[in-house]
Backbone:
């Protein structure tokens, strides 16, 4: 981007020089120096002084020069602005990807591999999902190279962990963590400068809204509220976590029925993030309660809207995001807990209901549509049993949902990989 601006400035300067009134005289002078003298030139000795005097008279004044410079600066500013213009859909895709990337736990993997010297069974799958997530986002030019580099590092890390190769995985985990940190920082800068253009096809529709609500419901605002007001403690990552959610709300094309509430919640979250950043418990505690209550009401209203609405958007990104979120919920752990501990926890039903709703808002390709429908049906039945505190019904459904989710994610990953391979062949 900077190189482009420099080149453009250079071209404008050359153009300005070329159009300057003094330029013809300079060109004429060069021609006179290289040409052979002729009698005709000697016969009109007064011509050269006259032209030279005219050139001197036409030299731009300082005011004119400054006016030209101001015009050039305005043009460059417009070019910079044009380079930042994007669609609401792209901003939402990037912001969601960064949210998931920051929440993937690469820091924890780095620490564990290099300090505890252990690779856990789910590590490779987690890193693989993050790498795959990066391939389905339409990154702007200023982020595309870094995204590709991070994806390559994550792919190598996932491969090393799949082979249980700690010696290779440990330095790659550190590299991935550092690259992810830098990439997220640059992406946040891009998001801060991006200029949204509203176009007819810019709205993400039901899936974009559902993804945002899913992340909002999973952000732990309830836990932050309880901890600040009961334990009176602010943890180091609280401000960043809340800020991610606040920023997420600004990049969704909310329908008219939800837009005002979204703006109010974003304002509350921003104030809470600032108070947390300043370690101001007195200001943060009531804001945490307010944010928690507003988020609860907003999610409820958004779910009601989603129940009546559905739209289509970028299929590969939607499928990949849905699979990422689906894989992030431990249905295996839920199934084991229901069998071993005979206990349904308060949030189980809501979590499974969110997954079922997520599946219903994705425009699945033909190769996945039937399996997605079957899994949605199973998850809906499981959510109803959990919400009804029906352990006898929920236990076999949890086991069935876990198996179907595992097979479905595997099939979806194959579909995504095939699409990526086809895209690379056409590049």
Residues:
């Amino acid at each position: 981007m900077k190189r482009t601006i420099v080149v453009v400035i250079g071209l404008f300067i050359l153009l300005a020089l070329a159009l300057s009134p003094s330029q013809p005289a300079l060109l004429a002078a060069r021609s006179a120096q290289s040409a052979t003298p002729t009698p005709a030139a000697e016969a009109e000795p007064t011509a050269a002084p006259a032209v030279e005097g005219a050139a001197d008279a036409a030299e731009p004044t300082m005011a004119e020069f400054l006016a030209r410079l101001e015009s050039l600066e305005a043009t460059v500013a417009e070019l910079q602005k044009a380079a930042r213009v994007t669609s609401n859909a792209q901003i939402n895709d990037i912001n969601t990807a960064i949210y998931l990337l920051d929440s993937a736990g690469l820091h924890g993997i780095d620490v564990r591999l290099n300090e505890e010297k252990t690779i856990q069974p789910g590590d490779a799958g987690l890193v693989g999902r993050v790498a795959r997530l990066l391939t389905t986002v339409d990154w702007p030019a200023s982020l595309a190279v870094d995204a590709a580099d991070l994806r390559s590092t994550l792919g190598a890390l996932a491969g090393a962990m799949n082979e249980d190769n700690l010696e290779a995985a440990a330095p790659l985990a550190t590299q991935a963590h550092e690259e992810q940190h830098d990439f997220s920082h640059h992406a946040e800068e891009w998001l801060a400068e991006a200029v949204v253009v509203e176009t007819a096809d810019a709205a993400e529709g039901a899936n974009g809204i559902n993804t945002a609500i899913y992340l909002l419901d999973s952000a732990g605002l309830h836990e932050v509220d309880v901890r600040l007001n009961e334990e009176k403690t602010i943890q180091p990552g609280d401000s960043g976590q809340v800020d991610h959610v606040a920023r997420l709300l600004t990049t969704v094309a909310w329908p008219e029925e939800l837009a005002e509430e979204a703006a109010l919640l974003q304002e509350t979250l921003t104030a809470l993030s600032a108070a947390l950043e300043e370690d101001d418990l007195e200001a943060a505690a009531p804001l945490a309660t307010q944010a928690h209550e507003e988020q609860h009401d907003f999610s409820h209203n958004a779910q009601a809207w989603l129940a009546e609405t559905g739209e289509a958007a970028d299929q590969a990104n939607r499928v990949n995001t849905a699979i990422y979120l689906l894989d992030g919920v431990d249905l295996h752990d839920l199934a084991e807990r229901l069998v071993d501990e005979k206990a349904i926890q308060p949030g189980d039903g809501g979590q499974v209901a969110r997954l079922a709703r997520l599946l219903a808002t994705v425009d699945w390709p033909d190769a996945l549509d039937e399996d997605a429908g079957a899994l949605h049906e199973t998850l809906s039945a499981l959510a109803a049993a959990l919400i009804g505190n029906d352990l006898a019904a929920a236990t076999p459904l949890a086991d069935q949902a876990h198996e179907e989710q595992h097979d479905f994610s595997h099939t979806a990953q194959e579909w995504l990989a095939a699409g990526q391979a086809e895209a690379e062949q056409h590049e």
